[in-house]
Structure formats: C-alpha cells, structure tokens
Input
Amino acid sequence: MKRIMERASINDFTLPGIQGKELHTMTAGVIGTGRIGRTVLRNLSGFGCKLYAYDRFENEESKQYAEYLPLEELLARCDIITLH
Output
C-alpha cells in the first residue's frame, strides 16, 4: 500500500510492481459451509478458482461449487482460506 500511496502522490497510476495475483489461478478453501459459507462459495465460483470446503456437516448445495476435503488436506492445498 505504501508504494501505491507514493505513486499516487506524484500522479503515477501505473500497475507494474503493485499488482496482486489473479483469483482464477488460485485455490480457495472455505471452512464452514453454513449459510454464509455457501454464499461465499457461490460468489467465488464466478471467479474461476478451484474451490474446496470443510465442514463437520456437509451439505448438497455446497457440493455443486466445491469439493469437501478433510481439514488438514484443505489447509495444505489452498492459497486462500476463509473461515465462516
């Protein structure tokens, strides 16, 4: 953020050196697939990233967006993890 602020102060809005990663190249894990977790899975599916989920109680709606994994395996495979 500091680099972005410094560039903005001199009206330099170029992107090299400050771009993040693209979601479609990443793997996301959702821990907790209740109402909020299912909504996050549904929204993340639109970005094209690989989705995994963990919950003690699997539900069918989440299975259309993500593959359920054991917690340890999800933590090892994912670039991004959200807790719900």
